[in-house]
Amino acid sequence: MLRALSTILILALIAANSAAQQKMQPSFVGAWEGPLVIGRDDMTMSFTFSETDGAYSATLINGAKGIYGMPADSVRIDGLNILIRIPRIDLEFTGTLRLDENEENYIRIDGDWFQQSEMIPVVLYPVETASF
Questions:
Q1: What mean pLDDT, rounded, does the chain reach?
Q2: What is the secondary structure of the chain as a DSSP string?
Q3: 61 is a domain residue
Q4: Which residues contact 122 (CB under 8 A, 6 or more apart)?
């Protein structure tokens, strides 16, 4: 009986610790915006991330290209790394979430925009809403 109670107590502590760690993870859900320079074109682009039942989705806004709210076909999160694919415009975005010095909030996404065999570095910053 004592062994069973000890096991239950240990499992409860592990579950509580796991839940606390999950709650402490910062969220990157919301709008992220930054400059995208292709050739001589300097435009602003934005991804807006959302999460439902642990699955992430993203929409793209790039006013200069006439793209407003285009959904990504896939969004994959692996630790601090993000991979977004939108095959209908031949786009793949890879990025790394960067934390503040206290590791409490994400402050930017350092990424690369791959489209039509061209790679362009992009830095995205969190914004309340996209500025388009």
A1: 86
A2: -HHHHHHHHHHHHHHHHHHHHHHHS----EEEEEEEEETTEEEEEEEEEEEETTEEEEEEEEGGGTEEEEEPSEEEEETTEEEEEEGGGTEEEEEEEEE-TTSSSEEEEEEEEEETTEEEEEEEEEESS---
A3: yes
A4: 34, 35, 36, 45, 93, 95, 111, 112, 113
Per the structure, the complete domain to which residue 68 belongs is given by 27-127
Amino acid at 59: T
Domain tally, the chain = 1
CB atoms within 10 A of CB 106: 19
Burial class from Cβ neighbours inside 10 Å (0-12, 13-18, 19+) for residue 67 reads: middle
pLDDT digits (tens, 9 = 90+) for 9-66: 665 656 655 544 444 678 999 999 999 987 777 889 999 999 999 899 999 999 888 9
Work out the number of other CB atoms within 10 angstroms of the CB of residue 116: 8
Residue 4 lies in a domain: no
